[in-house]
């Protein structure tokens, strides 16, 4: 986790500092080594949120695009009492989940049902060859349009795995743009993607404009 609660405030991991989890209120330990990004961890190997994944520099870079008070927000189902930590949750209720590691379809569906108004941002650079196959299969549909046809010919199932997601999915290979997955035919391995400027995406959300619901969230 990036933040713990220390004296009532959200604080990043710092050597020899103790904090508590905002989700379960148990003690957190600051992990400040030389290899992994500095983070907070629960004692032992347990975590209060089974959906939580180990953070990378990629996670941190994305989270830092948004205000601290929007980052790592505990979300609770008022009926069942189920609680999870959203990577980013805006004041208007939009959740953004940054996914680096592979995710089982069952968990993906559960998270989408729990958060409802959400966006996935997927780390496309996790596997070394995925960016090559993605760029190799791109074909521009119309001059001046941000839409591209994508023909996937590699062994990876990156687009297959995310093709049935109900919320919008953005694939991030690094750089100044990322790619919104619009549709993908699994049987033919052909789909449509849209180039989106990351800064434009960030600005729409950070300006707290309700316009991003029509732009980025499927109804």
Descriptive report:
This protein is an alpha+beta fold. The protein has 2 domains: 1-48, no CATH class; 49-216. 21% of the residues lie in helices and 34% in strands. It is built from 6 helices and 14 strands. The strands form 3 sheets. Strands 6-7-8-9-12-13-14-11-10 form a 9-stranded mixed β-sheet. Strand 13 (177-185) and strand 14 (190-197) form a beta hairpin. The protein is elongated.
Short summary of the structure?
With about 220 residues, the chain is of the alpha+beta class. It has helices spanning about 55-65, 105-115, 130-135, 160, 200-205, 210-215, and strands at about 5, 10, 20, 25-30, 40, 70-75, 85-90, 95-100, 120-125, 140, 145-150, 170, 175-185, 190-195.
**Total count of domains:** 2
CA-to-CA gap between the ends? 31 Å
% residues in beta strands: 25-35%
Chain oligomer state: single chain
Structure class:
alpha+beta
Rg, Cα atoms, Å: 18 Å
